[in-house]
Amino acid sequence: MSDCDVAVVGAGHNALVCAAYLARAGLRVHVLERRPIVGGAVVTEEHVPGFKFDLGGSAHILINHTPIVEELELERHGLEYIDLDPLFFAPFPDGSHITIWRDLDRTCESIAAVSERDAHAYRAFVRKWEPVAETFIDAFLHPPTVRRVAKSLVADSWRRSDSFLETTRNAFVGYDSVVRRSFTDPRVQAVVGWMAAQSGPPPTERLSGPLAIWHPLYHRSGMKRPRGGSGMLTQALARVIEAYGGTVTTDAAVRRILVERGRAAGVECDDGTIVTSRHVVSGAHVRTTLDLLGDHAPARFARGVKRRRIGNGFGMVVRFAMDELPDYTALPTPDATTGGDHHLALQFVCPDMDYLNAAYDDFREGRPSADPALIAMTFSKADPTLAPPGKHTLFLWGQYYPYELANGESWDDIGDREADRMLDTLAAYAPNVRDAELGRLVETPLYLERELGLLRGNVMHLEMSSDQMFFLRPALGAHRYRAPVPGLYLTGASTHPGGGIMGAAGRNASRVMLADLGLDARQ
Q1: Is 134 left (phi over 0), alpha (psi -120 to 50) or beta?
Q2: Has residue 170 got a pLDDT over 80?
Q3: Nearest one of 323, 321, 325 to 333, comparing CA atoms
Q4: Which residue of 58, 91, 307, 456 lies most exposed, with the fewest beta carbons within 10 A?
Q5: Which H or E run includes 99?
Q6: Where are the alpha helices (DSSP H) in 365-474?
Q7: 3-class DSSP state for residue 361?
Q8: What is the C-alpha R_g of the chain?
Q9: Which residue has the higher pLDDT, 471 or 455?
Q10: What is the pLDDT of residue 169?
Q11: 299-307 and 286-293 are packed helices; what angle lies between their axes, rounded to 10 degrees?
């Protein structure tokens, strides 16, 4: 008899979501994680005494478009979400600023202060594209098939759009073109374009237009933050698994996936521990999964996976322990210790689309962006548990940063230099941050690979370009969460719908597996 029904490789949030649904359906589940804590790239740790740092994703937006929190009753298992409003705050070099609130009217009032014309354009943009953007949600919450994608992204888009021709045109261009056509003021263009850039494709990449069309859904989903740090989501998921009789083991690095008589039959860990199972789910990077299969990987699958583009990194993040919050010259606060509402938001440093394109041009040439586009996150404003009394955390996410540097430099040597450049870039908008730093954790593309298993520093696993999405992700023949090895299933950012804190890949994979086993996914 096998040790369990399902052995799960890795404890990233998608793997945990999948395992939680499987355990809830009555399967004996064993999750094995190589790090000393569950969570993968959704984890919170203390790297400066008294300060809680996320190591990966921090803003919880996409998961709000799924039923996962309710279906798995995560609040009963310790997850407490804090609603954050406003959502985005963008200061500009001329002293102006734009605030995006969940409320559309309030947002348009803020935009009107810099451009009355674009305030009307923004309202029209949200109303026009929200019904079309909803079709993406439907596509993301189901396994990708040609029929499903055609229904969601073509038939439903046509039905919900008042101009199918315009919808089609925007789908085939880059999001740079979409925002420039939609708005006249470069500041408004930058706010929408910079959020679109978070998936990875450069602004001018063809077929990336839908990343801007998605923008109206932020007003619906809002943004949340788990009290205690981003990793509280994955901690709650682990407790769900254990509540349903599953096992979660940390410090258990999987060395290989066992295959017997052509079927996945368990895993072997680095310390020699063997866990036998009837099925295996891998939440690891698809290239890592291929390595774990070794000679048991079918040749066609191996060729397909090796052709998938991981890319040359994407971004880097620096976690700062701070004495106070950024005091923006565009919206100063009387007390930088308590701050203002805008410190609840994601704070943008990206003055216009030309600035973003220039940052990408540096990246394309194999060098860190000289003037990086940034997102500053100060979640300690909403959650004082993240820092000692009167202190704060500041997370800086920057784009674009190549994993492999053209001049041969090592990230081990230049990480702090680039972290300083990021902080100096923010200081041009909030001068007080230069003297407020108390400590830091620098997460270069190389760090992301070493610590979180994000190969070549790509937080999305594989590039999120059109030819690597939907039924083309991670490869033909493995796009519906089934690997071409019987009994082996795939989940995680390498699979549909890709990266970000959403959990849809985990939920979809569990539903496919339960359907294969003739079990009810709705238990």
Answers
A1: alpha
A2: no
A3: 325
A4: 307
A5: strand 97-100
A6: 411-427, 445-452
A7: helix
A8: 22
A9: 455
A10: 75
A11: 150
Give the mean model confidence (pLDDT) for residues 241-262.
98
124-138, 178-192, 254-268, 334-348: the lowest-pLDDT one: 124-138
Q: pLDDT (tens digit, 9 = 90+) per residue, 427-439? A: 999 999 999 999 9
Token look-up 């979660």 returns 248
Specify the DSSP class assigned to residue 185.
S
Q: Which two tokens stand for residue 409?
A: 């430099």
Which residues lie below 8 Å from residue 120, measured CB to CB, with a gap of 6+? 108
Average per-residue pLDDT in the chain? 95
Q: Over the stretch 116-148, which tens digit does the pLDDT of each residue have?
A: 999 999 999 999 999 989 988 989 999 988 887
Q: How many Å apart are CA 158 and CA 188, to the nearest integer?
A: 27
Q: What is the spatial distance between Cα 4 and Cα 27, in angstroms, rounded to a whole number?
A: 8
Kindly provide the b/e burial profile for residues 299-309, where b requires at least 16 CB atoms within 10 angstroms of the residue's own CB: eebeebbeebe
Instruction: Fill in the amino acid letter for 403.
Output: Y
Burial of 131 (0-12, 13-18, 19+ CB in 10 A): middle
Q: Is 100 helix (H, G, I), strand (E, B) or coil?
A: strand
Two tokens, residue 330? 């565009």
